[in-house]
Amino acid sequence: MYFQKKRVIAMLLAGGQGSRLKVLTEKTAKPAVPFGGKYRIIDFPLSNCVNSGIDTVGILTQYQPLELNEYIGNGQPWSLNKTHSCAQVLPPYERHDKKSGWYKGTANAIYQNIDFVDRFNPDYVVILSGDHIYKMDYADMVSYHEKHNASCTIAVRNVPLAEASRFGILNTNPDNSIYEFEEKPAKPKSTNASMGIYCFNWKVLRDALIADEENPNSSNDFGKNIIPSLLAAGHKMMAYPFEGYWKDVGTIDSLWEANMELLGKNPAFELRGGKRSTIYARNSALPSSYIDAGAKVVNAFVAEGSEVYGTVRHSVISIGCTIGEGALVEDSVVMPGVVIEPGAIVRHAILGEDSKVCHNAVVGGAFAEGEKKSISVTSKGAVVEANAVLKPGDML
Amino acid sequence: MNVMGIVFTNDASLGELTNKRTMASLPFGGRYRQVDWALSNLSCAGVRHVGIISRHNYQSLMNHIGDGEEWGLELEEGGLEFLTPYAQSDVHRYRGKLESLASAMDFLEYGADDEVVVMIDSAVLSNIDLNKVLSAHVESGKDVTVVTKAGVCNGEKMIDLALKLDEKGEVCDMMVDFAAPADYVASMDIFVLNKKWLIEQTKEMIARDKFHMDRDLVLGGWQRGKVSVNVYPFEGTAMFNESVEEYFTNSLALINGETRHDMFGGNHPIFTKVRDRVPTYYGEACDISDTLVADGCMLEGKVENSVLFRQVSVAPGADVENCVIMNDSVIGEGAELKYVILDKDVTVTPGAKLIGTPKSPIIVKRGETV
After folding, report:
1. Interface check A266 vs B, CB under 8 A
2. Which of B265, B291, B306 is the last residue of a domain?
3. Of B230, B265, B300, which one is at a domain's C-terminal end?
4. How many domains are there within chain B?
5. Which of A43, A81, A275, A291 is the mutation pick for testing B, counting most B CBs within 10 A?
């Protein structure tokens, strides 16, 4: 088999459960969770790859992979199915030397797929995760990495000091080289938070992965093991500052917020994009959406194939939804295929795919300005019966 | 049964809307081109070998269809083939369907396994289960099956091929290119024929300098008792987009729920070329009612009883009523549009006023600024 040598390939970690998304990831891996009306979370790193000129992507899957695998398919929506490109799904597998089985950690997942990476003989490997919403040109990061002659470059963003102890913090010299890494430090020394986006020289990473695998005490994790060990060994490691929008959508609240941040005339995160900033998604064959004479749609996204007869305010309505007559949807994320029957009221909620809110049911509630909002959630296919109430913060 | 599909792209008949495109590539229904119905009907009936016959202006059509991937026709065996005059023969323009079939003889004869041919046009749109038509054709044992629609003939509308049926449903009269009376049914320009028979007939007709499918083969053959004709009455919605008025009326008819479901989801989905556009954003002050909205729009004004294609923007204070707005058009602040068709990429400057009538909507050409 012929494999073209690649300067850069990407490995996308998409195997995590995303347990903090609770009912939304009961049957779906986090990267396959719908976002922004017609997208899934994984569309963002995949589209970033394509927009950055990276045409070879290994996707490491493990938890509940059915929907994710089906969604990725052969990579056609992202043009990753061509002669010199690929989107290769890499599930855990059984190996002759028994050094296999479930992916034990993020580093182990890459370790088990060294053969895949070797095929392309890349100079650099970019490690990405499948749970962030952002647009980033990885090519810039790779050039930065190359220019500084680093072994590893880590994308960082500035976080408020008060929040810094929730992140992996990189302490840097004035030239952005890293001298220390602290995972969730109690007393953070800086506000450079790791975004979980790494660029490695493949030779360096390959050796580090093999060494890490031989250490029985390692938890085979990039943040906990690989980065500290490379630092300790004296490798040059750089922080790559990123200033654009970036959101970890690993919790119900952050997923809801990120959706809300798409709205407005000048949204915090602009989904629209031109060349090299389009987010690609697997498109479904649905007709245009229909807005009825009795409908009212204000400050909202409505995706294809939806029919709106009721009122929608400050919400994201995904593909193939129906909002019945007299129904009210406010400050909510309505995922694909949801049916909201006439008279139902939905506020501050995330309605999972294909779930249903029957006649006159009430989901969630309103909150005063500044009050902490508790988001109500329905799982995939859940049914809120007629006249039933799903209280603020409750899950079904 | 192995079936071959032949799609005719049809000549321009809608004035400025089809100056630079065929009927097949005319945008319709918000996200589609007219040919999407023909291709989806064939594809969903399991037809995997399709030829597209186009006389001229086929650039935009080729752009749209590409290798046929969206319709599942990007195949190694069979798949999709463009049959353009220049690629096939020294005939530069076809005078009729038979002549174009004669030019495409290689294509017809090449698909050796195909027994039956479905011929389908791009001006009459329907979401039809062609498998039922194919079964009816085989069962009838006749030479040609014509798919027809009742209620279209009214003594005013010109009909390509009108047929009158007796009590037993047998054809008892036919007329070509005539404003047939209401007791006739209209051909939807969908024909099913046995391939071997079609090849023989085409060669013979061309040898006698006969090139018109409806007049020479169907009507002429039937009159001479040489061709037996079976009729398949279609019950669903059929849209005859053969004039600007019809195109406009049918576009707005899609706003009706039943008609819309019939056209888009009746038997199967209608596939079209994918464009990666964001969902449509409805602004703070927008007032949208009874409207079909495609993806990627930015809506801040008032829109009523209209069809908006992809990536249309309507500025605050604009008032759009009974309009068809094609993709990438921009409607400025305070503009007023009634009974208007905006072709692609039109810019309506702030405050502009365009008022047409239901019978003759104002058409603004592609790329113009008003």
Report:
1. no
2. B265
3. B265
4. 2
5. A291
The answer to whether residue B273 is domain-embedded is: no
- Are residues B260 and B298 both part of a single domain? no
DSSP state of B339: S
C-alpha B354/C-alpha B27 separation (Å) is 21
pLDDT for residue B88 = 47
* DSSP type of residue A177: B
Q: What is the largest CA-CA distance in chain B?
A: 68
ipTM for the whole complex: 0.89
Picking from A272, A285, A295, the nearest residue to B278 by CB comes out as: A272
- Which of the 8 DSSP states describes residue B369? B
| CATH number of the structural domain spanning residue B355 | 2.160.10.10
- pLDDT tens figures, A74-121: 898 998 988 888 899 998 888 777 666 788 889 999 999 999 999 999
- For residue B118, which phi and psi values (nearest 5 degrees)? -105, 125
Spatial separation of the C-alpha atoms in residues B164 and B175, rounded to whole Å: 9
Q: What is the pLDDT of residue B85?
A: 65
Asked if residue B294 and residue B250 are part of one domain, the reply reads no
Q: Which DSSP symbol is given to B220?
A: I
Pairing of strands B238-240, B124-126: antiparallel
Nearest to B53 by CA among B14, B80, B77, B75: B80
d(C-alpha A298, C-alpha A108), whole Å: 48
Q: What is the pLDDT of residues B106-125, one digit of tens each?
A: 888 887 788 999 999 999 99
Q: Is A175 exposed, middle or buried (0-12, 13-18, 19+ CB in 10 A)?
A: exposed
pLDDT 10s digits, A351-366: 999 999 999 999 999 9
